[in-house]
Amino acid sequence: MLTRIDHIGIACFDLDKTVEFYRSTYGFEVFHTEVNEEQGVREAMLKINETSDGGASYLQLLEPTREDSTVAKWLAKNGEGVHHIAFGTADVDGDAAAIKDKGVRVLYEEPRRGSMGSRITFLHPKDCHGVLTELVTSAPVEPSEH
Ligand code: CMX
Ligand code: CO
């Protein structure tokens, strides 16, 4: 069951400048940063609120680390902006299988590693009315250095 908005993924050209915009404009602080080489991104997670299921909701600011990454390709075509939405679930495997059975393309055979040790998969935007949709099961971990 999808129980929350885990994050909104926002693609940007310059992560440090974008982090500074969210800090100085809204007062959102960086909760966690990491590089995910498999996804080809350097990212910052800004925690917006905690939720009643023990999870949280974040903004995920994404800067590409290489030209051939999905985010670099998307930025070249669209410029900066909202790239995807992610729903949180306690069971990404079960929810992905159930959604696949409804005829929506699930992009990964098995969930892959996402932010902060989470397990993630994606649904094809063309099957979701134009919205690239991620499913996330969080890992119960402490924030890392940033
Ligand atoms: N939102 C909505 N539509 C999108 C999209 C997005 N983010 N990215 C691509 N599309 C659309 C394109 O506009 C295009 O539509 P048209 O044919 O009408 O022009 C179509 O999908 C195909 O796009 P493409 O540019 O040819 O891109 P690809 O098919 O190579 O890749 C996708 C699209 C969804 C398969 C790829 O982006 C993907 O695998 N995404 C999942 C991984 C990811 O996004 N990782 C980065 C974030 C990591 C994280 O959140 O942790
Ligand atoms: Co994401």
Describe this structure in words.
This is Methylmalonyl-CoA epimerase. Its EC number is 5.1.99.1. The chain has helices at 15-26, 70-78, 92-101, and strands at 2-11, 30-36, 41-50, 56-64, 81-89, 112-113, 119-123, 133-137. The protein has 146 residues and is of the alpha+beta class. The chain has one domain: 2,3-Dihydroxybiphenyl 1,2-Dioxygenase, domain 1, CATH 3.10.180.10. An 8-stranded mixed β-sheet has the order 2-3-4-1-5-8-7-6. A hairpin with a 5-residue loop joins strand 6 and strand 7 (119-123). The longest helix is centred in the N-terminal third of the chain and has 12 residues, at 15-26. The chain is globular and about 45 Å long. It starts with a strand and ends in a 9-residue tail after the last strand. The model has no long low-confidence stretch (mean pLDDT 95). The structure holds carboxymethyldethia coenzyme *A and cobalt (II) ion (CO). Cobalt (II) ion binds next to strand 1 and strand 5.
